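lol forgot to send this yesterday, sorry. struct tokens for the thing we talked abt
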């Protein structure tokens, strides 16, 4: 169990509750939740600990050997207790683990982005299948398009040839 904990995408913000191993399907499901008990409202930044509700979110993570990994994440919704705030309820964000609405972890998305960036759509799909991180051509290209461009730096000194 301790080994599994160390393989989580964020060992400081996530705690491993239990896990399920399915040898026939070749899957490992890790049931995890966030550690933090006090969360800041994303609108007013006021801290709160008042939980409104929970829901489950499934995220595909990097495979371990020949097993596909799914994080079954218990996500909490909180009340904002600041009476002056417009937001009454908000969902906790785990920015070190995944993007809002994503169905995969950040580190899997980064791996797929690197494959897509190096090989493009069709060849990237073939390699990702070999690596056990299957994604469609459109997904690879969408991930590549979402990579932020490097900042444009204006040179301080221009030479004659420039
Ligand atoms: Zn608020």
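and heres what i got for the seq, position by position
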């Amino acid at each position: 169990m301790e080994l599994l904990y160390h393989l989580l995408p964020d060992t400081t913000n996530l705690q491993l509750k239990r896990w399920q191993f399915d040898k026939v399907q070749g899957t490992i499901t890790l049931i995890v939740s966030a550690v933090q008990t006090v969360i800041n409202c994303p609108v007013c930044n006021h801290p709160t600990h008042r939980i409104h509700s929970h829901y489950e979110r499934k995220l595909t993570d990097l495979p371990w050997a020949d097993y596909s990994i799914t994080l079954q994440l218990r996500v909490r919704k909180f009340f904002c207790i600041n009476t002056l705030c417009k937001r009454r309820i908000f969902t906790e964000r785990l920015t070190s683990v995944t993007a809002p609405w994503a169905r995969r972890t950040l580190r899997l998305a980064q791996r797929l982005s690197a494959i897509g960036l190096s090989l493009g759509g069709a060849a990237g799909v073939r390699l990702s299948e070999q690596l056990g991180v299957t994604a469609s051509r459109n997904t690879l290209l969408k991930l590549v398009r979402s990579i932020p461009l490097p900042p444009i730096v204006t040179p301080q000194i221009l030479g004659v040839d420039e």
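Residues 106-119 form the longest helix (14 residues). anyway ping me if u want another try
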